[in-house]
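User: Please fill in residues for this 405-position structure.
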């Protein structure tokens, strides 16, 4: 007879037999056949048997389970804890990444999450192809990657939403071109290698939008020092170079930091940052003498960016002010016994001819000279466009300072 539904087995009718009596062949054969059936219904230890129902453990554990090598296998607790099932290995590529999971997947499914260590830092839009399933886009905050979101050697986690992979981890980077909210911010060059940054209050932000308010900030940044309190350890001091100034916070300390990149990677341990301004090395690798009050920076001595006759066809001029700021310029023009018009425009504006009615400065035939202070928004290369209506006479363009947005 079969088990009773709870796993208990009873011998078939005619059992048990009685000592001294003849055993019926029918009883014997029925008993052997019944026992054979129940052995068949039992699990063979060598793995021959296939389960036909749920395996009820009765609150007991399964011990000494090997790591699964198939997607339909039972994983061990260690395999799960160690993350081997979701760790992508054999990573290669920069913006077109490939890798493998073991056991291999055959399709992407909504809700999958994987981790990997990038082989290279991405430089633009990025895809990943796992087990040759196909290239899937990697997005962050709803848009394609643009570069530096994946860092070589820095672990990353991606989540598949049914359409694309979403990067859940991101190496903190400093936002550029936007001066942090502040109260009474001042930046002063105190020597040819040091700038001092002070502020009554300064708001620092991390990549999640969390805010840390720093009070009574007073930090020196020495370009000859590598790392915190100095120049980004990945940079090398150079002549005629802009350096971007930041205040950082690591949960304990507030420190200054400069980099030749407006979006550097934060030093280890620092998650909050505030972009506060910029300083520039001259041709001798000495910091130019500047003073910045709140969002306006000024040179103690104006910087000559152009002196000559000018071009009637227009020419791009690089201004000694940080990219994407509003440059404060002084334009002086002179010409003996004849008129001259000079026009300074922003590079995105229409390139029109200079004239008396369309000019930044205009020298009439009887005035001989003219000067004017103007503000022009610089492009990402710190350039403006300059045109004159004649190559006669001279014009000069000096940079007085700049204004951050």
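Assistant: Residues filled in for all 405 positions:
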């Amino acid at each position: 007879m079969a088990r009773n539904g709870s796993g208990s087995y009873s011998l078939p009718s005619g059992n048990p037999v009685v000592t001294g009596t003849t055993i019926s062949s029918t009883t014997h054969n029925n008993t052997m056949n019944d026992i054979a059936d129940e052995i068949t219904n039992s699990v063979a230890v060598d793995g021959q048997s296939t389960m036909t129902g749920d395996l009820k453990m009765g609150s007991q554990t399964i011990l000494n389970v090997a790591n699964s090598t198939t997607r339909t296998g039972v994983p061990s607790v260690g395999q799960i804890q160690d993350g081997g099932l979701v760790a992508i290995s054999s990573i290669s590529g920069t913006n077109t990444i490939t890798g493998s999971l073991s056991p291999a997947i055959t399709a992407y499914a909504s809700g999958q999450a994987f981790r990997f260590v990038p082989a290279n830092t991405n430089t633009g839009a990025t895809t990943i192809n796992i087990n040759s399933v196909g290239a899937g886009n990697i997005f962050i905050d709803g848009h394609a990657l643009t570069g530096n979101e994946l860092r070589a050697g820095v672990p990353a986690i991606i989540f598949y939403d049914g359409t694309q992979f979403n990067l859940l981890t991101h190496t903190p980077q400093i936002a550029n071109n936007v001066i942090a909210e502040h109260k009474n911010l001042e930046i002063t060059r105190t020597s040819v290698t040091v700038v001092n940054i002070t502020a009554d209050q300064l708001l620092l932000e991390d990549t999640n939008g969390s805010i840390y308010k720093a009070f009574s900030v007073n930090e020196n940044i020495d370009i000859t020092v590598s790392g915190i309190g100095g120049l980004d350890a990945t940079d090398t001091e150079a002549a005629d170079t802009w350096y971007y100034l930041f205040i950082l916070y690591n949960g304990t300390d507030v420190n200054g930091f400069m980099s030749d990149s407006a979006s550097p990677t934060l030093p280890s341990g620092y998650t909050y940052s505030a972009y506060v301004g910029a300083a520039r090395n001259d041709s001798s690798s000495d910091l130019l003498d500047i003073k910045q009050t709140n969002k306006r920076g000024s040179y103690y001595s104006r910087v000559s960016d152009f002196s000559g006759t000018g071009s009637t066809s227009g020419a791009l001029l690089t201004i000694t002010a940080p990219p994407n700021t509003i440059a404060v310029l002084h334009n002086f023009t002179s010409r003996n016994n004849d008129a001259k018009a000079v026009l300074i425009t922003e590079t995105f504006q229409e390139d029109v001819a200079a004239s008396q009615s369309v000019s930044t400065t205009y020298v009439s035939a009887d005035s001989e000279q003219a000067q004017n202070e103007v503000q022009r928004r610089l492009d990402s290369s710190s350039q403006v466009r300059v045109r004159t209506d004649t190559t006669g006479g001279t014009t000069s363009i000096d940079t007085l300072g700049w204004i951050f947005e």
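For context: The longest strand covers residues 211-226.
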